[in-house]
Specification:
288 residues; alpha/beta; Rossmann fold; 8-stranded mixed β-sheet; 11 helices; 8 strands; 50% helix
């Protein structure tokens, strides 16, 4: 995690160093606020962090105090709701965030923990989407259900769930086409996929993961806000953290939206997906 957040940490610590923090100086607090906002922590989360630091009285080492308060904003450790059999994980997001690779990496992690996994390719819109996902599923040792391009995504999701039940799999991961939150017809299609899944298994989908590209900063926050409202997102998978100087957006997502960051992508390999750890994240982002 420390290596993955190196760019974000350098950006933030450079701002903090430039701030020359003095707790008795109102201008120092203002510069701290500016440093956090520049690092994509966002205005509401920045205001809360500063409020918490101010109530401490004695701040001590700024980086350590800031890391402690950032960790506290995330709340308890996140978990994936995978108790049902099969459990259904619906994966959503805009194009280019890394949905396909995240699904492959998640399938690999679940397989490592003894879960049998089936991947359903309900992205029937993007050219080569099914082929790419099938390659990742094969690498992860997961079963696979696909369909021809242009097929009804809800029908593919239905087939994937039914196949998982018939074959005794523990987890179904359903991919969906990348879409912008402004595309009303595609968001309605996503809701149809949800309804079909819910009609086959009570309580499904048990997780709806939104994949957010960390390099997009506050745009990622806006995506999380609007997808969360539209399709009842249960958690965020934050990708491309290793290439981003904007890792502070995880704090904004957690604080402003109350959405837990559950997974982080830290590289391009199949093993480069980690459960989100608030302590490690905050230390790596702020203190190094």
């Amino acid at each position: 995690m420390r290596d993955s957040l190196a760019k974000s940490r350098r950006a933030l610590t450079a701002e903090l160093a430039a701030a020359a923090f003095d707790p008795g100086d109102d201008e120092a607090w203002a510069r701290l606020e500016e440093a956090l906002i520049r690092s994509d922590v966002g205005v509401p989360a920045t205001a809360e962090l500063v409020r918490r630091l101010e109530t401490r009285g004695e701040v001590g080492q700024l980086e350590d105090a800031l890391a402690e308060e950032a960790e506290a904003l995330f709340g308890g450790p996140p978990t994936l709701a995978l108790d049902a059999r099969p459990s259904v994980v619906l994966v959503v997001g805009v194009n280019g965030t890394g949905k396909t690779t995240t699904i492959g990496k998640l399938a690999q992690k679940l397989r490592e923990h003894g879960r049998s996994v089936l991947v359903g390719a309900a992205d029937t819109f993007r050219a080569a989407a099914e082929e790419q996902l099938e390659i990742w599923a094969e690498r992860a040792g997961a079963d696979f259900v696909g369909a021809s391009r242009g097929a009804d995504p809800a029908a593919v999701a239905f087939d994937a769930v039914e196949a998982a039940r018939a074959r005794g799999h523990d987890v179904v991961i359903v991919d969906t086409a990348g879409r912008l939150h402004t595309q009303a017809n595609l968001m309605a299609e996503l809701e149809k996929v949800r309804r079909v899944i819910a009609g086959r298994i009570e309580g499904a989908p048990h997780e709806t993961l939104l994949v957010v590209d960390a390099t997009t900063g506050q745009n990622g926050l806006q995506q999380a806000r609007l997808f969360g409202e539209a399709v009842r997102v249960t958690g965020v998978a934050l990708t491309k953290l290793d290439g981003s100087a904007r890792g502070g957006v995880a704090i904004a997502i957690a604080f402003e939206l109350g959405l837990p960051v559950k997974l982080v992508g830290v590289g391009e390999g199949i093993d480069d997906l980690r459960p989100f750890d608030a302590h490690d994240y905050a230390q790596a982002l702020v203190a190094g």
